[in-house]
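[retry 2/3] DUF7595 domain-containing protein: previous attempt timed out, resubmitting with same input.
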Amino acid sequence: MAGDGGGGARPRTQAARGRRQTAASVPLDVLVEIAVRTDPATLVRCAATCVDMRRRVKDYTGLGGRLHLRHSDRFVLPLLRGHLIHTFKYEGMRRKDQLSLVDTTAADTTTLRRVTGVHGFPLASSNGLVLTRVARGLCVWDPATSRKQTLPSAPTFPVDVVATQQHDDTTNYVLLVGDDDDEGATVVGRQFHVVMAYLELSQHCRNVHFQIFSSEHGTWGRYNKIRVHKLQGSKLQRPLARALVVGDDAHWLCLTDKGDYVLKLQVRLVEQVMVTMLPENFPRGGCWYHQLLATSSAGGCPIVLVTDGNKISAWAQSKQTGKWQRRPRVVIEIETILQFLDEAGGSRPPPSLWEVKHEIKLLWFAERSGTVLIKVLINMSTVGYFWLNLQSMKIVRWFSDRGEEYPTGNMPYEMNLEAWVPTFSSTL
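[retry 2/3] DUF7595 domain-containing protein: success.
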């Protein structure tokens, strides 16, 4: 009888423990309310736990719920949805421009998808929106919804500036898009700013000229000219490349005949320009060197990626002092990239009798996903394009060069997290 009593007590104890655990669990609806107030990486991990949780997150946004995500210190790789390529070709005497998309969500990356609805040259992209230059001026559009907003005529810089610049070749454009999806606030959904900037550099003038368009007001703001005292030099070694956007700040890599600098324009809060000088041993010359601004974490301090043909190195900036470190760290070497190519089923050109020379071009950096697009050439024969994940410092994908006729520009296309949540079931 004693044995029967002990055997009967065990199931009752387990049942009681199960009831206590069930009573202490948090309902999925409450978990969703918590998850949408964390950060992108946490939300993704939460949605990846089970089908029910993904459904609840989708239902939350589908019924008009808003995401209140804080800035994350981690990249979210799936936010990189594709790579926009601008090409043109001639039909008779007429030039025909087109945009194509390499879709990272598709299994087959051997074909390009034509982008319809908006034509023009891509100038900048941010948070799911793309800024293009079209025949009538500038246009901001959302490739996911095909909604577009044409900006009013951009103002012209003063005559003395226009006389020294080659129009759009040296004018730099920046697109800043808010994190929240404010439906109905603008034609494309979210509020945004467009910055038109130009660096005037000569023996006696070192000024940054810029004007800002605000979607909230629907107009271009006042013309600004700020003298950059700490900038040395009388001419640029190359035009300013596409800006790196970190929060509300735009950063440019500036290589002059007297030194190398990073310029930072604070756009929304205080319109001012800050300058930091790169170390004297920063590599700048030679046809094999390519530089690109990036960040090692989402919303983090800028780093400068530099290639020398055999490796990619990163020069970091101290968050406390703002000074640049004198020694870089190696991010990835060419042999690692080529090993990935071999394992992925690609083929590298066979070694020739001549010395094998590698060229690594850094094409763009995607701020939300932390991805760098790399183009690798050996003996001037294109090997392919690679996505480098800066968080893991590993190659995650590649596609071959398709011999596109007259490729003139490329741009990352990252989705806004609001637009991405409804696709959780197919992307996780």
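[retry 2/3] DUF7595 domain-containing protein: Residues 2-62 form one domain.
[retry 2/3] clearing retry counter.
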